[in-house]
Structure formats: structure tokens, C-alpha cells
Specification:
The chain is α+β, with helices and mostly antiparallel strands. It has eleven helices and 19 strands. Helices cover 29% and strands 15% of the residues.
């Protein structure tokens, strides 16, 4: 259908039909900005006995010291009850905690209230995830965030008040339903239809990059306008590829042009507690420390109504409640965090520079393939099986107390 509006564009929920709810930790201490703190927290938990160990765990209805659960797919954690656990800390894995915030997680199913094993089963180097941030009316920022890491979720004890500071996160949509980039999580027939329209083969990753560049949040959910014009499609795919590269931050590191790259101008304090921004000087003030130049676009970058740089800083400086495992943190600000902060500033500044191009592209989408045309072509409605995870088990998974899981 030509001349459809953005609100007539198909829903992402129909174009990428299989989605998973966010991971729910139930306790914040199994995740941290550094892996060393997680190993120290695990050791402290195991040194405690009886009621002291239970208090440190912070039990919930889903997880206690006596919980018996299966091993997370692809991980080598124990499956015996935590009450009698004595082994080393499972190797922490890198996850995406909040938008643009990479942290570490102990991948032990006994510590996570709702780990979403179906996500872990399809997480590999070929996988990409689209994450819908929590939506706040009137807020600015991207409609979607992309990551190659497993989205790590939130907890009821997190310092921002029991949920992610950005509000309740939305659904997680894997690009592929199976390992090794097999079986795209897309409406059956969608790629073939787009290929016919644009006169070229369309890949699943191209659809993802287009979606990153053009998706819009509406009251009904996230919508993805599909253009009639092949040139607009090619332009959007190229723009989305740049957005994806910046968000993945893999391979060659992004850089701002010479003279615009942020540097540490005054050493950051060992225990910073305050983050301020001087817009005139384009300077980030971290206690007595100074980083500049920091473009306003990086400082003003929000997701779900929350300033990304402030949320990132708070998660690394909140001291944790005394006597809890959360309080086990680095004694001083690690140099690695400074490097991560400089890179985050760069990424946010470059993403902000691309916003005008995204808006220009959105304004050019006057002729679109609407929901009615997708129905006429048989792409919609999608079969219910496409909304459920694929059967991907090709190896044994260890169940509770060392028993093999059968799926």
C-alpha cells in the first residue's frame, strides 16, 4: 500500500515474531562492572555458612540456598544446591546491562530468578540481539539498541530503585532462531518479498540495520517503515550498518576527528562521587578529574528519559549497602573504567551526529509497504510457531543436581 503513515507501518513484533522477556536477576550482586569483584563476592558467599550465607545470597521466591535448577546452556556452573557449594566461581561473562553499558555476570542459574535459557541457547558469535528500551512518553533516544552480547537484565535490588533506571525494559529479539546464524527470526517470506521489491538479495542483517536506522516507537509498539524505493532502502541499510558498528564496538575502535577526541586533562580521583558537565567548556568533571572535549551530543544522549553517561557513572560509584555482597567493589577507580568512559563518550557523540540523517531518512519515507500489502503477499499474519523458540538442543544440558536435561 502506497502513501501509508508511520502508524500504518508493520509492527516489529510481527516482522521479528520471536521475542523473549528481559532477564530478571532477582539480586544485583551477581553482576558488576568488573569481573574481579564478582569472584570476590562468590568467595565471600562461600566462606559464609548457614544463615549468614543465606542472608548474603538475598533469597527470593525463585532462588534460595536449596534451589535445584538446571545448568545454563553453554555454561559450566554447578547444579548442586548452593547450601553445599564449595567450588570456584563460574567464569564471568560479558553482558549488556543497560543501554551502552557492558558489564560482567556470574552465569550461574542458581543465582538468577529468570535467566531465560532460550536466549542462552542461541547466543554465539553469529548472534545479534535487538533490545527495546523502556519507553517513557515524550523521551528522546533510540527506539532500539543492538548488541552481540547477551542482554543481562535488571534486579529488584538495583541502586536505581528496584528496576533499571530507564524503566522496565522491553522485549529482546534475537536475529537468529538457531546457532551459527541459522534460520532468521523474521516473518516467513519477508526477505523474499523485499528482495523482489528491491531487485537484490536481502539478508537478515540488512533488515536489522534498516530497522536500527528507521524504527519508531508508537503507542501500539515499535513500528518499522518499509520503503517502496530501492535507493532509500540501500541508504537506510548503509546508515544502519554504521549505527550497528558503533553499538557493537568490535574490531576497530571508533574515533572522533583529531582535535575532537576526548582526553583525560586532570587525573580522576580514586573514589569519584560526582559527575558534572560544563557545556561552555565541553568538559566532563569527575570530582577533581577532567575529561574534554566532551561534545554536548554525548552528554545529552538519553535512552528512556535517562542520561546514558549519568546512569553508567552511577552504576560504578554506588557503594552498595554495607555488609552485603554489593559492597564488594574495587578499592579505587580502575584505569580500565576510564578507557571505557572515553570510548562511551566517543560512541554517543558519533551516534548523536547520525540523528539528523535518521530524521532525514524518516521524512523521505512517504511511500511505504504497509501492513495490508504484507498480508496480501502472505507474509502476515505470521504462524504461531514463528513466535515460539526453535528446538535447538543438539547436546546434553546438565539439569538439577547433575542430572541431564531432556528437551
Amino acid at each position: 500500500m502506497l502513501g501509508v503513515t508511520h502508524d500504518d507501518a508493520p509492527l516489529l513484533a510481527d516482522l521479528m515474531p520471536w521475542s523473549v522477556a528481559p532477564v530478571r536477576l532477582g539480586r544485583s550482586w551477581p553482576m558488576a562492572p568488573d569481573a574481579a569483584s564478582l569472584r570476590a563476592r562468590w568467595d565471600a558467599l562461600l566462606r559464609a555458612e548457614g544463615a549468614a550465607r543465606e542472608e548474603l545470597l538475598r533469597p527470593s521466591r525463585s532462588r534460595t540456598l536449596q534451589s535445584s535448577v538446571a545448568q545454563l546452556p553453554g555454561q559450566r556452573s554447578g547444579t548442586g544446591r548452593l547450601a553445599r557449594e564449595s567450588g570456584p566461581c563460574p567464569e564471568p561473562v560479558r553482558v549488556l546491562h543497560g543501554p551502552f553499558d557492558e558489564q560482567w555476570l556470574i552465569p550461574d542459574h542458581r543465582l538468577i530468578d529468570a535467566a531465560r535459557p532460550e536466549l542462552w541457547r542461541v547466543a554465539d558469535p553469529h548472534q545479534l540481539f535487538l533490545v527495546e528500551p523502556g519507553q517513557v512518553p515524550g523521551s528522546t533516544g533510540p527506539a532500539l539498541v543492538a548488541t552481540g552480547l547477551l542482554p543481562g537484565g535488571t534486579s529488584r535490588t538495583e541502586s536505581g530503585g528496584g528496576r533499571s533506571p530507564a524503566g522496565r525494559p522491553g522485549r529482546i529479539r534475537p536475529l537468529y532462531r538457531r546457532l551459527d546464524g541459522v534460520e532468521p527470526n523474521l516473518a516467513p517470506g519477508l526477505l523474499d518479498l523485499l528482495g523482489e521489491r528491491y531487485g537484490t538479495e536481502v539478508s537478515a542483517e540488512q533488515f536489522l540495520t534498516w530497522t536500527l536506522a528507521t524504527a519508531r516507537q508508537t503507542p501500539a509498539g515499535c513500528r518499522v517503515p518499509l520503503p517502496v524505493d530501492p535507493e532509500l532502502w540501500a541508504h537506510g541499510v548503509e546508515l544502519g550498518h554504521r549505527l550497528l558498528w558503533l553499538q557493537l564496538r568490535s574490531g576497530e575502535r571508533p574515533k572522533l576527528p583529531g582535535g575532537r577526541r576526548p582526553y583525560v586533562r586532570a587525573t580522576l580521583p580514586a573514589r569519584p562521587t560526582e559527575l558534572l558537565y560544563d557545556r561552555e567548556e565541553e568538559t566532563l568533571q569527575i570530582g577533581e578529574g577532567r575529561i574534554s572535549p566532551v561534545p554536548p551530543g554525548a552528554w545529552d544522549f538519553h535512552v528512556s528519559g535517562v542520561r546514558v553517561l549519568e546512569a553508567w557513572f552511577e552504576r560504578r560509584t554506588h557503594p552498595g549497602e554495607p555488609g552485603t555482597l554489593d559492597a564488594i567493589r574495587p578499592a579505587s577507580w580502575p584505569q580500565a573504567w576510564t578507557s571505557e568512559l572515553l570510548e562511551l563518550i566517543t560512541v554517543l557523540a558519533l551516534l548523536a551526529e547520525l540523528r539528523p540523517r535518521q530524521e532525514e531518512l524518516g521524512n523521505a519515507l512517504d511511500k511505504q509497504l504497509g501492513t495490508a500489502e504484507l498480508r496480501k503477499a502472505g507474509v502476515l499474519p505470521v504462524p504461531e510457531t514463528a513466535r515460539r523458540p526453535a528446538s535447538v538442543l543438539d547436546h546434553h544440558e546438565e539439569g538439577p543436581d547433575g542430572q541431564f536435561a531432556l528437551l
